[in-house]
Each structure stands twice: as structure tokens, then as C-alpha cells.
């Protein structure tokens, strides 16, 4: 007879493993064996294990080498063992288990009331597109960030993009809107944690509805854009996130269409819309042949974020 091999308990793991290296190696093995899915800040079993171990120990997540062979205390080993086991048994994304996600190296509090922030817009905001530092043929969307007076973040979720925008546009008042009252509770915490409450203002409502006639120099949005087929096939990790923040209708673009239609009324004459929407580029280009979409590239994407000015949007 074949002897059944049972997985060690968290308590047994905490007894047997001693160092940071041990726990990372164990995490990689368990995640690979269990077939967990990534995409909430990491893309491999190794990166996931490194993030969980370093963040679980409150160590800098970008400085592994100095701590690789550090021996851990008994409480530290117990905590890491339980975290790694929970990642496999619950299928919750690591940021939920640790209540921490990073955008552009900046930490934000997260829990199951919001999707885990992972927008390409964070990278774009900190690029030369919005720095006013482009030279020669370099593309610049905002010539002078200090001249931006009002910014809007639609579908703000955890509030991370609104908070980043308050850094990129230091003189701007930033409005952040979400339909979910629970998501705004998380955003409220992040606004307070980052000390930007005087400039970042949270609003509950459906897209532009709570803003009345306000106009903005820059509108940023990472709305729900997962299509129906993809929603039905989501891995377990993504099913732990609020479905309201993911589902974008049959082709994923229901909310994007509404934003394109309504945005011109809420942009200043020189204003523009920065929108992340996933992989529906062909659909948008076919549906809006008169719109001259500017497709923006990031380190890991192309054709998933567009920029349109107010004048261009008026042709929609």
C-alpha cells in the first residue's frame, strides 16, 4: 500500500524552519505544489514568498539579501508559517493577508472591501508624461504639474491613485469617487495614513453623479473592466475580491463607455482623461472611429491605458 503523505501543520513548520531563506524556499514549494494564482503585486511563486516573508517580518520588501540567512524568533516563525499556510488554504491574495499593497513603492492599507490595487496608472503618473520634464520629442501630457488645479479619480477603491495624484500634482484638489461605501472606508483610512485629508476628498456615488457640474484638469480612472467570460473563469484568488469592482459587463466596457460619454462635461478646456480598461482596444477603436486614442505604454503593458483630451472626447 502507498503511504499517504500529509502536509505538515503550521506549528510543525514553525518548529522545523529557522531562517528567512528556509521560509522563502518552503513558500515557493507550497505555492507551486498547490497551484496558487498570482497577479496581485507579484507574478511568480518566488516573488510571492519573498513579499510575504519580508512584509510579514516588517522588513523592507526590496532588500532581501541582508536578511536571507537571518535566524528568526519563535513568534516570527509561527507568524510566517501561519501566513504561508493561509495563502494556500484560503486562496486570499497576499495583500489581504498582510493588509498591505504597494504602488510605486508606496504602501497602502487593503482588505477584502477593495480590490488589491495594481493599476498601470501609478507608473504613468510618475513618468515624464506628467512631470513637465519631457525634452525634445518626448511626449508630455501635462506641461506643468503645479498648474493643475483639480483632479478626479473615478472608481477610487482604496484611494491609492487619488493619493498618488495628490503627490504628482502638488497644488491640486483631488476628488475621489466610488460606488461602494465599504471601499470608501478603506480609502478614508489611506487618506488619513498619508496625511492628505485636506486635499483629497472622498465622494460616494455612481461615477460623476455626486460631482454635479465640477470640472477637472485631469481625470484618472481604473474602472471595472472584466468581461463576462473572464469573470466566469476567474481563479479563486480573484474571486475573493469585490465583484462590483471587477465586472464590466458582457465585453467589459460598459462603464468605460459611460465615462467616455460623460467625461467631456467634467473636463476643463485643456483637460484630459487617463483611463485603464484592460484588453478591449480593438472594440473601442471600432466603436469610436472618430476618437484619436493615445495608447500609453508601461513596463508590462501596451494598449491597456488611453489618454483623450476634452476636445477629442467631444467627438465621441
Distance between the termini: 69 Å
From the spread of the alpha carbons, the general shape counts as elongated
CATH superfamily of the largest domain: Vaccinia Virus protein VP39
Assigned CATH architecture of the largest domain: 3-Layer(aba) Sandwich
Provide the low-confidence segments as ranges.
none
Q: Would you give the CATH topology of the largest domain?
A: Rossmann fold
Please list the strands of the largest sheet in the order they lie side by side: 5-4-3-6-7-9-8
Structural category is alpha/beta
Please state the average pLDDT score. 94
**Number of DSSP strands?**
9
Order of helices and strands: HHHHHEEHEHEHEEHHHEHEEH
Number of helices, counting only DSSP H or I runs of 4 residues or more: 13
**What share of the residues lie within helices?**
25-40%
CATH class of the largest domain: Alpha Beta
Beta-strand fraction estimate = 15-25%
Estimate nothing, just give the exact number of structural domains: 2
Biggest sheet layout? 7 strands, mixed
Radius of gyration over all CA atoms, rounded = 22 Å
Report on the structure:
The protein is of the alpha/beta class and 316 residues long. The protein has helices at residues 10-16, 20-34, 45-56, 74-90, 94-98, 121-125, 160-168, 181-193, 228-232, 236-239, 254-262, 281-287, 310-313, and strands spanning 101-103, 106-108, 150-154, 173-178, 200-204, 216-221, 267-276, 294-298, 301-309. The strands form two sheets. Strands 5-4-3-6-7-9-8 form a seven-stranded mixed β-sheet. It is elongated, with a radius of gyration of 22 Å.
